[in-house]
Design a protein that fits this description.
The chain is α+β, with helices and mostly antiparallel strands. The protein has one domain. The protein has three helices and 13 strands, in the order αβαββββββββαββββ. The protein has a ten-stranded antiparallel beta barrel. A hairpin with a 2-residue loop joins strand 3 and strand 4. The model has no long low-confidence stretch (mean pLDDT 88).
């Protein structure tokens, strides 16, 4: 019993270490001395809140895209050596409650993550089949030709791998001859890993809003002044998500071309999404009061550094629904999973495969 408690404690400790959550933003305005002390705090809070509005949603979006990526419209591949091979694209979408009009003032904007992959499966016989997905991409292999003033891609690495095994609990059964058939009911378990690195840079124009500024003589007062920041920046964005999941799904076949499936699942996740940003820029104002007193619209330069890490929800109960079109050997499948914790966050999956 004592050993069991030690193991449980070590697992919980591992979760805490690997799923660390922290947020910190520091501001240096020593080269813009007219920004008041309260104004420095306001700028730091503004930037930190801007990151915090997105960070948790992106972490959950990557989790929603991680444990998906196997859109499959049939309950059973068949015995060995039946197989399929294809490609899938998954988008995890979070903070969808933003589109409820009464919640838009919360500034909790939509966020998400994506997970493209190649996926393939093999029938093992006796109601069993196994599926895998994988993706390895590095900008060292191919550097997308994307460069804008506000966003320049410096590095991009994507790694995705996973697998699941399915067992056909209930075999196919005819409901309406020639029209409707129960394709089967399956139970599956699986595990997935998603890892990425994105390094970007550029120049941004960012409105800081009304910030407390010390107006120089002859005014010699402290006022709220509208400030703007034009800054060069670099950002390192990383994500690492591990998931374990299980699902139970019922399949229905219409005629010989259409299939629909629906079911329930649950996923357990840990990992993190992190964002580290550094920037140096010029602070300006359009305030006539400040410009008249200081003789310039420029307050000076400001540097900032922001380091943040967010973890996904540890467990996500799921409702699953999907549709499949069979064109001889080619199958096109669309699937969605809904997070039952809030009934708002979803993932959208699209897969195309050759099934033999």
């Amino acid at each position: 019993m004592k050993k069991t408690r030690i193991v449980i404690f070590m697992i919980l400790l591992l979760f805490l270490i690997c799923s660390g959550v922290y947020s910190e933003t520091t501001i240096d305005t020593s080269n813009a001395p007219d920004i008041a002390a309260a104004g420095i705090s306001e700028i730091g809070t503004l930037i930190q809140e801007s990151v915090d509005y997105f960070g948790p949603g992106i972490a959950n979006g990557f989790a929603l895209s991680n444990f998906a990526g196997y859109p499959m419209g049939k309950a059973y591949l068949g015995g060995f050596p039946h197989f399929f091979i294809g490609a899938s694209l998954t988008a995890g979408l979070t903070n969808m409650e933003y589109f409820d009009s009464e919640k838009k003032e919360e500034r909790k904007y939509p966020a998400g993550g994506v997970n493209p992959a190649a996926y393939f499966g093999l029938g093992l016989g006796k109601g069993l089949d196994i599926m895998f997905k994988t993706l390895v991409f590095s900008s060292g292999m191919y550097n997308p030709p994307y460069s804008k003033t506000y966003l320049q891609l410096n590095k991009l690495n994507l790694y995705s791998v996973g697998g699941k095994i399915r067992y056909n609990l209930i075999q196919d059964h005819t409901i309406l001859p020639g029209l409707l058939e129960l394709g089967g009911v399956t139970f599956s378990i699986g595990a997935d890993m998603l890892k990425g690195l994105l390094q970007v840079g550029g120049q941004l124009e960012y409105p800081l809003g009304n910030i407390q500024v010390d107006i120089p003589s002859p005014v010699s007062t402290t006022e709220d002044v509208s400030l703007d920041l034009t800054s060069d920046y670099t950002a390192d964005i990383k994500w690492y998500i591990l998931s374990a999941n299980s699902q139970i799904i019922a399949y229905f076949d219409f005629l010989w071309i259409f299939s629909m499936y629906t079911g329930l699942g649950i996923s357990f996740n840990f990992g993190h999404f992190s964002l580290d940003v550094e920037g140096t820029g010029t602070v300006t104002t359009t305030s006539s009061t400040y410009i008249a007193a200081a003789g310039t619209d420029t307050l000076g330069t400001m540097t900032l550094a922001s380091s943040n890490s967010y973890s996904p929800k540890i467990y996500v109960p799921l409702y699953i629904i999907g549709f499949d079109i069979s064109l001889f050997l080619i199958h096109i499948t669309a699937e969605s999973m809904v997070n039952l914790r809030n009934k708002k966050d979803i993932n959208l999956q699209l897969g195309a495969k050759i099934q033999i």
